[in-house]
User: What shape does this take?
Amino acid sequence: MDKDIQTALNEQIRHEFTAAYLYLGMMAWFETRSLPGFGHWMRLQAQEELAHAMKLVDFVLDRGGKVELGDVAAPGIDFESPHAVMKAALEHERRVTGLINRVYALASAKNDYPAQVLMQWFVAEQVEEEKNAGEIADQLAFAGDSASAILVLDGRLAARQPGEGDGGEG
Ligand SMILES: [Fe+2]
Ligand SMILES: [Fe+2]
Assistant: This one.
């Protein structure tokens, strides 16, 4: 496969593992503070990021490319509040969207149609990712310092199932 696309996909594999590592840290942050619903949401989020990484790994392998794994840096997980955690998650997803868009643009520029199809899935996925993180961040902003509101939200997030973004209707 095209070397530039291979490099970009390997970089994206690293970014997905970095995201998984970040959400793992956020999961621990919430679990440590006895907010198991948020912790559960973050645990599933970390698993989703690993699934994203594997999707890219499989694509590189299927195309006869070379998987080259880069370093995954430790995430900073020193947060002030649940709201600060979710704001950081949202900012992270926005950054990832920019990275995904760049890989898609490269696949387009190179007329690599299979890579374009793959990256279209990621483009659509990022809309969901930003929406889900943004919704929870907004709800925590409404909640402010209200412990009862935060606990209600914790209960709702505990219901998140694998494959969905929130604890609610889908
Ligand atoms: Fe991802
Ligand atoms: Fe994500």
User: Anything to note?
Assistant: The chain has a mean pLDDT of 95. Residues 16, 19, 49, 52, 96 surround fe (ii) ion (ligand 1) (CB under 6 Å).
